[in-house]
Prior knowledge:
The complex is a heterodimer of chains A (about 750) and B (about 300). With about 750 residues, chain A is of the alpha+beta class. Helices cover about 55% and strands about 15% of the residues of chain A. With about 300 residues, chain B is an alpha/beta fold. In chain B, the strands form 4 sheets. Chain B has a 6-stranded mixed β-sheet with strand order 8-9-10-5-11-12, sandwiched between helices. A 4-stranded antiparallel β-sheet of chain B has the order 4-1-6-7. The relative contact order of chain B is 0.13.
Amino acid sequence: xxxxxxxxxxxxxxxxxxxxxxxxxxxxxxxxxxxxxxxxxxxxxxxxxxxxxxxxxxxxxxxxxxxxxxxxxxxxxxxxxxxxxxxxxxxxxxxxxxxxxxxxxxxxxxxxxxxxxxxxxxxxxxxxxxxxxxxxxxxxxxxxxxxxxxxxxxxxxxxxxxxxxxxxxxxxxxxxxxxxxxxxxxxxxxxxxxxxxxxxxxxxxxxxxxxxxxxxxxxxxxxxxxxxxxxxxxxxxxxxxxxxxxxxxxxxxxxxxxxxxxxxxxxxxxxxxxxxxxxxxxxxxxxxxxxxxxxxxxxxxxxxxxxxxxxxxxxxxxxxxxxxxxxxxxxxxxxxxxxxxxxxxxxxxxxxxxxxxxxxxxxxxxxxxxxxxxxxxxxxxxxxxxxxxxxxxxxxxxxxxxxxxxxxxxxxxxxxxxxxxxxxxxxxxxxxxxxxxxxxxxxxxxxxxxxxxxxxxxxxxxxxxxxxxxxxxxxxxxxxxxxxxxxxxxxxxxxxxxxxxxxxxxxxxxxxxxxxxxxxxxxxxxxxxxxxxxxxxxxxxxxxxxxxxxxxxxxxxxxxxxxxxxxxxxxxxxxxxxxxxxxxxxxxxxxxxxxxxxxxxxxxxxxxxxxxxxxxxxxxxxxxxxxxxxxxxxxxxxxxxxxxxxxxxxxxxxxxxxxxxxxxxxxxxxxxxxxxxxxxxxxxxxxxxxxxxxxxxxxxxxxxxxxxxxxxxxxxxxxxxxxxxxxxxxxxxxxxxxxxx
Amino acid sequence: xxxxxxxxxxxxxxxxxxxxxxxxxxxxxxxxxxxxxxxxxxxxxxxxxxxxxxxxxxxxxxxxxxxxxxxxxxxxxxxxxxxxxxxxxxxxxxxxxxxxxxxxxxxxxxxxxxxxxxxxxxxxxxxxxxxxxxxxxxxxxxxxxxxxxxxxxxxxxxxxxxxxxxxxxxxxxxxxxxxxxxxxxxxxxxxxxxxxxxxxxxxxxxxxxxxxxxxxxxxxxxxxxxxxxxxxxxxxxxxxxxxxxxxxxxxxxxxxxxxxxxxxxxxxxxxxxxxxxxxxxxxxxxxxxxxxxxxxxxxxxxxxxx
Lengths: 741, 306
């Protein structure tokens, strides 16, 4: 009780000192600046990009804090701490308060608490002002976007709380400096220099141990932990720094002499060194990356669905073969299944549960915990457990543009082979160390298998630059010279082999291999199919990669080869080199489907919705030709084709030929909003079971244009695009020519 | 119990900045409870350093300061319950009003704010209670500083140069105030000063420090006696002195004629002035003025010279 009483007394005295101190102005100016600027920028630029994301309130507040947290906030803390201590130095307040019957500990802590409270008030002011800014934006521009979403108080306030805590370390270090150095300018400048130095050092690994980086790191993890813990490592680091520096600061404050507080008598020195060691090692311990262990007792996938109900099964599949590895029933929105088959190599696997279609990085002996949200139109899935770091990275791999690489690519001709090699290796090293740095907000480090795969995938582009782009440039500019790279580049070039089975499931790697094989074999892109296939068969050893590559090539050839006899022959000739039965089976299915689309065969039936809400099916067009455009609102190329299709519809729509657009959008409202200004000659339809429809028609990419004759007979399920001359030619030949069928 | 007769006692207090010549050297102060103790010394003698040591503001690893018989080191900060201090410049929050400055003391000590008005009127600042201290004159600040020391009704008051910056009227008022507090409330007052005159007028106990060393300590009377061991110089004003000088010289062989009317005599003590004057009257020597050349000051100057 005594302790509380003394704390309250000291704190009450501190509060009186804040009167007329101008602290309100400092809080007001520092906290209002960014929210006001940000609101004005959004209001005048009308830049909705800033509001992207699930919730515009959240987006607005987070964006505001992004401008505030990493620099303004530390400077604010430095300023306020120095100023409050300066009040004592200037007015000789120390000797007044220290000759009162209250222990210096309470005085010391009370001032720290006051500064911390001011910091919290400042953060809350920024928060309130940014909400006010968001309200202004919502009234003036995006009313609907804001009105549909509630303010996510929990997320925002826990972020602000974490940001507050992340500032404690800075306050403590500045408090020590300001008590020690009895003027304003020197500690303030030191604090400012340290803040700036930390932000310059932010690229270096050591920076995350510094208290000055904590707010920036908290800001980088605005949404908080991926494992439901409240405080993240940088906040714990801030707390540890705070404890260390408050202890150190108090030692000095109590004795007003470093010598008497830490060294003399010498027995003290040992104790103090021990305390110092405990603090520093705990700071080190907090910041160490966590490496999760695999479990030896099998591969488990479990999880739960929230924000809705899901009654189907959860499927874990092989992404290439489509084989189902695990089929887990969902009971009461939760599920759990154990995998018992062949060992799974580390890599991406498919995760399917109704509308949620995602990839998950895993291997044998992993325990994957899945949290899937079924919130309408915002379905999302998070993978935790032993592969949390790997899957966090998969989901958050938005990367900043590498400007060095960009300039190198733009100005290849400026580089001699030596300079090019040097620059490329520098970029490579940076890229590799960036991969290493991708820890989760909780500081969990991805495991070695994932890092190796990531590093190899990241190197592909650079190797291509060295082996494809640069030689091409060189041959153009210096036709008479032979290109010779320095030997140092070999490390990069040999970093990824052309026969790496662990990368077989990654399309980027397969494209890379195909490109390089083609280059080696001297195959140009027109004489593709059989030559390349033969080359793959001859030069690659048996294994996952060879299977997958052959599968890719054959699958592409199936839709490429028009003549059905040759197609069947081709497939028959090469599939026998594939040793994976499920791939062979898939190719057989694909071939059968393609054959069923031959001219004159019956097109698969479909039903779709009109704008008026009625249902239309293919058989409704039994007595005319119908040309179908398969598209979606999110598909850029589809929109490019749209005006051409419109124009053709205006010219050719008649009782002989109907124009139909089928949207495969998941969101019906998006479709409705988008079709208002299209030609009235086109019947606009929305496909409720889009994925089933696309599968039945063998559609793997849109836009797709199809022509179907009366009675549902196929003319072509893969027409040229309307922007090409041939499209109109096909229409004229097939539909309007006097000998038309 | 024996220790308790001293409000402040130090035993060989020693302090040196950065291992150089000590600023305070083996100082053993004994400030009797209930006294007004003048801690006298020229500028730089170590007065303020001593005051800072007495209030625990300088690090002092040795347990050699006792307030009311209790070790300062062991009883800091509870010991300040009964101590009010004003050291060097008064510590005032210039951006706050006089009342708010006093309220800070109340908060820190957990005492009632009811006495603020009374204390301000004691030091004559009631009219400006709400004004910001930065608008105060030096004298007003000094008085507010004393108010802050007085507010908790201490038993011991430590004041460093309390009349600094006060005008003559203020000095007299301050003197009255201190005497009143001492007599009415039995407050022990420890004042440091470099003005002998001031100490003589206010204090009943004196300690003289020079170069960190205590040169004298005792009551004011002890001080006088001590200072008069070498006698006093007295100047008599006698018109037509030349006529009487031979007569005087026969009685006082050390007599000196300063000019036509001024005679300087070396007397053993101030008491001798009266008898000398009586003798002059008997001899019909017309004395029109007597001036004692302040032996105390001379003596003080002497011991605080080099």
